[in-house]
Amino acid sequence: SQQGEEDPQALSIQEGENATMNCSYKTSINNLQWYRQNSGRGLVHLILIRSNEREKHSGRLRVTLDTSKKSSSLLITASRAADTASYFCATASGNYKLTFGKGTLLTVNP
Amino acid sequence: NAGVTQTPKFQVLKTGQSMTLQCAQDMNHEYMSWYRQDPGMGLRLIHYSVGAGITDQGEVPNGYNVSRSTTEDFPLRLLSAAPSQTSVYFCASSYSHTGTNTDTQYFGPGTRLTVL
């Protein structure tokens, strides 16, 4: 069963614009993670936010977490063509299992 | 460090054949796991291990076996391949599973398996 669900399923923007992706989940979590996957490649970890944190930054990435709404958002600022990839949220709920959503496909047009 | 390595990169099997997908990590990670990725389904956990000699089932374990005899290696065995097992398989590892948290996962490049 899917825990995290990303929204939108696909997003197309122009280079330089900001991209926002959302993730909703159903049960309480210990942490929430975002990953990027380039076509045909393995997943690369972007950022981890713990349940007692509300916001984290890493370079051009900003992640927020609202545990009362069971939702998270990933913001990529000043996007580049190289940001084109699928982005997944994953939730850790205290049972040694990391549960992934179905992903958002981001296309950044030059 | 090589990180997480997987072999083979591609494999074609006939229905009923068996095979082992190899996964190794050189980061001394305790936690290792196997996922399958199907179009429109995201990643689904097959089996995981929290240390040598300890394995447990994930979301979709049927048709797969695992063992963890060393910290470094975590092979995935397909007992009798079926077309429904056509997928891309990813191995991942993590340094820490402090308490009940699952921390940052490091993924291998994947094995693309086709079962005819």
Describe this protein's structure:
The complex is a heterodimer of chains A (110) and B (116). Helices cover 0% and strands 56% of the residues of chain A. Chain A has no helices and eleven strands. Chain A has strands at residues 5-7, 10-14, 19-24, 31-37, 43-50, 55-58, 61-66, 71-76, 85-92, 98-100, 104-109. In chain A, a hairpin with a 5-residue loop joins strand 9 (85-92) and strand 10. The mean pLDDT of chain A is 92. By secondary structure, chain B is an all-beta fold. Helix content of chain B is 0%, strand content 50%. Chain B contains no helices and eleven strands. Chain B has strands spanning 4-7, 10-13, 19-25, 31-38, 42-51, 54-57, 64-66, 76-78, 87-94, 106-107, 111-115. In chain B, strand 5 (42-51) and strand 6 form a beta hairpin. The termini of chain B are far apart. In chain B, 35% of the residues are buried. Classes of the chains: A mainly beta (110), B mainly beta (116). Chain A binds chain B through residues 1-2, 30-31, 33, 35, 40-45, 48, 88, 90, 92, 94-103, and chain B through 4, 31, 33, 35, 40-45, 48, 50, 56, 58-59, 90, 92, 97, 99-110.
